[in-house]
Amino acid sequence: MLAEIRAGQTQLSDGTIAPARATRMGGIVVGDGQGRYYEQAARGNIFSLILTAWSTTIAAGNIVGAAAAASTQFALWNPSGSGKNLSLLKFQVWAISGTPPVPPVIHSFCTAPTIATSVVTPIACNNVGMAAASVARALTSAAGAALTGNSILQYLRAADLGIGAGAMVPANLFEPKLTEYIDGDIVLPPGTCWVPTWMGAGTTFLGGYSITWEEIPA
């Protein structure tokens, strides 16, 4: 009932039935109580992965239409039988040096690889700093390693990033990383793999990657 609307902040436990909340001026509070990702991050369901720099030109496995088992520098996959979907939230690419290919980055899919665990990076903790392990597996290899057992890459859509053609800015100038807020419109069900891909290797182009995702029961 409207008579049960209360002004002021509250602290509630899970399962508590609470009244609607009003401002001190009597308006209904409808804004987010915290940041967009706070709820799931605090519950240990959000994870991130980073490759600070690749050390050779973009590997074949990070190029659109890459063949199965191609050498790849950065990939994230959801193993079969994980029981979770991976909902991609944020993707970042930053340039370090060289000339990038045209156009920039494309999101690509393939089947989850059967790569040996010695070159797989388990995600050991989540974004709240706890030791909860992710169901996901990933490849982060500066020089590249084979994604053994995956299918040929199929591209999904272009990333919303602003890396363009042409020589990069001089090394003494600040080059910001570029972020795409995917916000869950790309989902990896069990048995699938995501790879950021380019139309070519560029000219001595070096950079880095980061991906953030939420794990949701499938």
Tally of contiguous helical segments? 1
Q: DSSP strand (E) fraction? A: 35-45%
Major sheet: arrangement of strands: 7-8-4-12-6-9
Low-confidence spans: pLDDT under 50, at least 5 residues? 165-175
Describe the structure.
This protein has 218 residues and is mainly β. Helix content is 2%, strand content 39%. It is built from 1 helix and 13 strands. The protein has a 6-stranded antiparallel beta sheet, with no helix packed on it. Strands 3, 5, 10, 11 and 13 form a 5-stranded antiparallel beta sheet that branches. The longest helix has 5 residues, at 38-42. The two termini are 36 Å apart.
Question: Can you give keywords for this protein?
Answer:
single chain, 218 residues, mainly beta, six-stranded antiparallel beta sheet, 13 strands
In short:
The chain has 1 helix and 13 strands. The protein has one helix at residues 38-42; strands at residues 6-7, 21-22, 46-51, 71-78, 84-99, 105-111, 121-122, 137-146, 154-158, 178-181, 187-188, 192-198, 203-217.
Summarize the topology.
Elements: E1 6-7, E2 21-22, H1 38-42, E3 46-51, E4 71-78, E5 84-99, E6 105-111, E7 121-122, E8 137-146, E9 154-158, E10 178-181, E11 187-188, E12 192-198, E13 203-217
Parallel strand pairs: 1-2
Antiparallel strand pairs: 3-13, 4-8, 4-12, 5-10, 5-11, 5-13, 6-9, 6-12, 7-8
